[in-house]
């Protein structure tokens, strides 16, 4: 099925037909039809995205922003079309505020490095949460170490929800930036980022939002949130790996020094002095991942054809169904039971190590994630070595959940 057959009015969406758009979901794993429940790590790609990237390499390949010949202009047009698609995808005010980065990790590192060099001083504080991915911890640790600043952590309760009264206490005149995820990759908790932003802005503090887990599942509106920075990865929103988006308010991007130096980010260059290019090129040094950018644009088109409202409703039904069915298994312990969740269910099976359960599920053709999910401090806070994590996308169905439940039951029998 091509993208043109999708319902643009989001009234009747046949998710079973949509599954056919994803070639990998048609294959077997260990001799069993694959049940892919690891989209939180990286989502599968529809044929529409694959075709867009192949078409670029077959018919359009040339470097961008550098040539006056027609092929280069065609490649540049396709490249910049993806920027406009990304702008509308997150409702950014200007395409100048939409930067191509290699992914969420790169986006956070860019802000931590560039904003940190400009604005962090000795004694300042950076505020993150206890449920952050390592990618939203380590860059800030590095920035704080260079500046002599301090990293402060918003605690959580046992259900995996931020303690907002503690946030209120931590936020003060020494705070120079707040960096939090929109949705926890380990727990599925949807954090109150709009409230966080409002409170931070009340004392003039900017906020970065890690949107890696949110962009595939919900409509992102950076203007409604009033986020200062928002970043997400292409590979989690059904696009290619190695590409992502960093949105930044123009006032901050203009004030920050470049993250990398090289071609395309300069206005003039001499041995004595370099002046920098205008936004967004100031932060896009070197030849970019052109095919990745085009693939990301195709993925955005694909998701928008389905619609976030339909996606959210379908995935919420899957989450509720999985939660209900897994809780029926004796010895199951759910990790992360926030009232407001999306598309992730983490659990443990009494007396069994997550890796052992995951290995048995693999033999049954079921792909889940096991381990600490790049959130070791969170696992320590919850007192667990790691979890088994099933993460859903709109191409999953209740049959996938049924197979997961039966697989966990089988693992329990084998490991007890």
Structure at a glance:
This protein has helices spanning 15-19, 47-60, 70-90, 104-119, 138-147, 164-170, 193-201, 222-225, 250-255, 290-306, 308-327, 354-363, 376-382, 398-415; strands spanning 28-29, 32-33, 35-36, 98-101, 125-129, 150-154, 175-181, 207-210, 229-233, 244-248, 266-269, 274-276, 332-335, 344-349, 366-367, 369-371, 387-391. By secondary structure, it is of the alpha/beta class.
Name the descriptors.
14 helices; Aspartate Aminotransferase, domain 1; disordered N terminus; globular; 39% helix; 416 residues; 17 strands; single chain; alpha/beta; four-stranded antiparallel sheet
Structural commentary:
With 416 residues, the protein is of the alpha/beta class. It folds into two domains: 3-46 and 307-415, Aspartate Aminotransferase, domain 1 (Alpha-Beta Complex), CATH 3.90.1150.10; 51-304, Type I PLP-dependent aspartate aminotransferase-like (Major domain) (Aspartate Aminotransferase, domain 2), CATH 3.40.640. The protein is 39% helix and 16% strand. The protein contains 14 helices and 17 strands. A seven-stranded mixed β-sheet has the order 4-10-9-8-7-5-6, sandwiched between helices. Strands 13-14-17-16 form a four-stranded antiparallel β-sheet, with helices on one face. The radius of gyration is 22 Å and the shape is globular. The N and C termini lie far apart (45 Å).
């Amino acid at each position: 099925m091509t993208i043109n057959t999708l319902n643009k009015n989001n009234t009747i969406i046949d998710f079973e037909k949509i599954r056919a758009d994803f070639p990998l979901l048609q294959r077997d794993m260990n001799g069993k039809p694959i049940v892919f429940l690891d989209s939180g790590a990286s989502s599968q790609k529809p044929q529409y995205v694959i075709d867009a990237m192949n078409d670029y390499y077959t018919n359009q390949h040339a470097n961008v922003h550098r040539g006056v010949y027609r092929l280069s202009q065609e490649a540049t047009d396709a490249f910049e079309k993806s920027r406009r698609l990304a702008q509308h995808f997150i409702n950014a005010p200007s395409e100048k505020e939409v930067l191509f980065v290699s992914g969420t990790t790169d986006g956070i590192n860019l802000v931590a490095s560039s904003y940190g060099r400009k604005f962090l001083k000795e004694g300042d504080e950076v505020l993150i949460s206890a449920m952050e991915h390592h990618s939203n911890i380590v860059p800030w640790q590095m920035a704080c170490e260079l500046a002599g600043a301090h990293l402060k952590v918003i605690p959580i309760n046992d259900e995996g929800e931020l303690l907002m009264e503690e946030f209120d206490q931590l936020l003060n005149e020494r705070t120079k930036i707040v960096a939090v995820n929109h949705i926890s990759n380990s727990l599925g908790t949807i954090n109150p980022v709009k409230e966080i932003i409002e409170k931070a802005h009340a004392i003039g503090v900017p906020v970065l939002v890690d949107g890696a887990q949110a962009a595939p599942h919900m409509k992102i509106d950076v203007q409604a949130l009033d986020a200062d920075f928002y970043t997400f990865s292409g590979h989690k929103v059904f696009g290619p790996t190695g590409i992502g988006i960093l949105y930044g308010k123009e006032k901050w991007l203009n004030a920050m020094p470049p993250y990398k130096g090289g071609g395309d980010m300069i206005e003039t260059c001499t041995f004595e002095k370099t002046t920098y290019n205008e936004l967004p090129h100031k932060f896009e040094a070197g030849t970019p991942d052109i095919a990745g950018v085009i693939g990301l644009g195709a993925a955005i088109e694909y998701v928008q054809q389905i619609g976030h409202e339909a996606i959210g409703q379908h995935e919420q039904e899957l989450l509720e169904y999985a939660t209900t069915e897994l809780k029926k298994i004796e010895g199951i312990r759910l990790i992360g039971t926030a009232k407001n969740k999306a598309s992730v269910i983490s659990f443990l099976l009494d007396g069994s190590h997550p890796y052992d359960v995951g290995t048995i599920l693999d033999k049954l053709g079921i792909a889940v994630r096991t381990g600490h999910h790049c959130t070791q401090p969170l696992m320590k806070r919850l007192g667990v070595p790691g979890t088994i994590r099933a993460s859903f996308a709109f191409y999953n169905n209740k049959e996938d959940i049924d197979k997961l439940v039966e697989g966990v039951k089988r693992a329990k029998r084998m490991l007890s």
